[in-house]
Amino acid sequence: MYRAASRVPRRAVLAAASSGLVLTSLENRDKLSIYPRADPDVLLVETTSPLEEQIGAVRRQVQGVYADGYSYVQGWISKWIGIEHAVENRVKSIISPHESLTPGLLYVGIATLTGSILTRTRALPTRILLPPLFLVFSARHFLPNTTANLSSYLGNLEEVYAPSLAEKHEVAKAHSQMAWERVKEKTVDVRRKVDEGAVGWVEKVQGATGLKIKETLGLGQPQPAVVQKVEAKAPGWAERAKWKVEQKVVEAEREAVEVERKVAEALKIAEKKVEEAVKSVPEAAAADVAQEVPEEVVVVQAPAVVVVEPTVEKKEEKKEEEHKHLV
């Protein structure tokens, strides 16, 4: 009985305490605070789907292919621009600034077409060979400097890419030049013989008839125009010969200076060797080394510059030969 009575107050106390806690919690929940609450931190976790990963991989591949193609195209564009600049510089170096291409090329084209027109009813070899000959000779006549620059450029290409053909070409040019000189000499000789024969016949006729045909025709006497040309060109030839002699003298002086420099360097090297030998060998062998060293030293003497001036007789002979060639 006493135990049951003691249990009742305990239960009442526990019920009252629990009801008080509930009331206080409700009061705290319903009552707002006068201070603002801090926003809670939100943590976002990025997650990618397999589709997004595949799309990103494809996009990166496309961008790489585009970059490679762009760089490849830009490389070819740069090469083409370089080729354009090289061609432009080469054309500027070939075309002479002192020659006008507008009428010159027109004349060359007309001459080439004239050759093809003249040979249209001829044999096949003539039709093949004559137009190129007209082209070459007309270009040399109307555009000499440009043609010379072009031929030198083609010669350089031939030497670089076909040296054997270039050697054969040079040999053929030398033979053709020799043949042309021989033809000129033969022509001069034939003309001289014809003139001598004509003068002989005129002298015979003059002796038989007594008429002064030789003086009237002016045979056997130098023509005034030819004499004037020779006299006008003589100072130029003298200046040219003088300039060539001066160039040779300058080249010889340069060679002499170079030889002197080499001799000085050789002497310095020999002196250094002597000093090293004297330091390295004992005093007893120093005399033998000093005797052997001068035999190893080679002294190069500078070539003497000799300027040979033509004598008066040679000058007269040269003038006569030039007069014959002009005649």
Automatic annotation (TrEMBL):
The organism's place on the tree of life at top rank: Eukaryota
Protein name, as recorded: MICOS complex subunit
Subunit structure: Component of the mitochondrial contact site and cristae organizing system (MICOS) complex.
GO biological process, one term: cristae formation
Any Gene Ontology CC annotation: mitochondrial crista junction
Coiled-coil blocks: 242-269
Organism listed in the record: Ephemerocybe angulata
InterPro entries reported in the protein's UniProt record: MIC26/MIC27 (IPR019166), Mic26_fungi (IPR033181)
Keywords assigned: Coiled coil, Membrane, Mitochondrion, Mitochondrion inner membrane
Subcellular location: Mitochondrion inner membrane
Function: Component of the MICOS complex, a large protein complex of the mitochondrial inner membrane that plays crucial roles in the maintenance of crista junctions, inner membrane architecture, and formation of contact sites to the outer membrane.
